[in-house]
Amino acid sequence: xxxxxxxxxxxxxxxMLSAVSLLTFGAVAPVATVNAASVKTATTGYxxxxxxxxxxxxKKMLVKNKSGLSGKATALFSRKAYPATGAxxxxxxxLLGLKGLGxxxxxxxxxxxxxxxxxxxxxxxxxxxxxxxxxKAIGYNPQSFRLAGTKKKVNLVSALYKKSMTKxxxxxxxxxxxxxxxxxxxxxxxxxxxxxxxxxxxxxxxQQSNNGWAYNNTASAVDSDTTAMAVVSLARGKAGPSTVQSxxxxxxxxxxxxxxxNGAYGYTYNGKNMPNANSTAEAxxxxxxKQNTLKYANSAFKDGQTAxxxxxxxxxxxxxxxxKGAASQTLGVGQVNLANAAYRQAQKKHSVYxxx
Length: 356
Known about the structure:
Elements: H1 4-25, H2 44-64, H3 91-100, H4 107-116, H5 125-137, E1 145-146, E2 153-154, H6 156-161, H7 170-180, H8 196-205, H9 224-237, H10 242-258, E3 265-269, E4 272-276, H11 277-287, H12 309-314, H13 329-347
Antiparallel strand pairs: 1-2, 3-4
């Protein structure tokens, strides 16, 4: 498929860069208090095998327009299957992950996305944020996007800015902040209901006493997924207030403490830890937002930790490229690829979310 050769060439270059970057960023150098001999990290060879598998699986999903390659799969993009949005959950991360790993979308694939996305006055802030990220990833301009079946062009960035964020969940607030921060060309309208600084401050206000964030803004429900998204959004928003920068650092500290012994991340259910690929991917993306935390993606930094987050996440990648235990392969493969891309882009001092 178009783009696959380019990916492997770029990937090999990045792996070479990674070896040099280890000296600069300490990407696999464990913290002194951790026994290096007992820690498994993701070697370049291990990364190559696993990333190639998940990347290839995602390409096949896109070609077939399926949310997976099993008989239970549904469409990736379909107005009939998803009348409210036109796409399955997680599609923006899925497209961003492919883009970040060097994929070149075909005209047919781009048109399929544009034709199926449902965007109207009922679209939520989350719907708009996902559309902005997904369309930007495949090469469309979200500030001048022609809706399917019409001659009208709409400005999705402006539409998102005009949505109130005060009563949205932290996850939605984070999605919105990431979306409007993707390009320096994205303009805030004079009628906007928020700015990147005010939205950053709103997210900071919802940080809990243990330095994490929760979907329902309570300390007892703090989780690594929500915290990772908040960290990424604050890093992308680049707001100047010291309170924002302090919250960002505290959020990174929470993630360092939340890692499981096996290097993975997850959630707690009925008192039991539930490690999974998606939560681990979110943490890796968060660590990849800053050069001084990039090293934690592929190292051990907590007593008792036996593997790095990157090694743990790639361990969920099957030989076929699908993700073990994923609620859907769109979410599983999409976020794993996005984490792989974020880690590699960060080694080149670039963000997977920067698409000017």
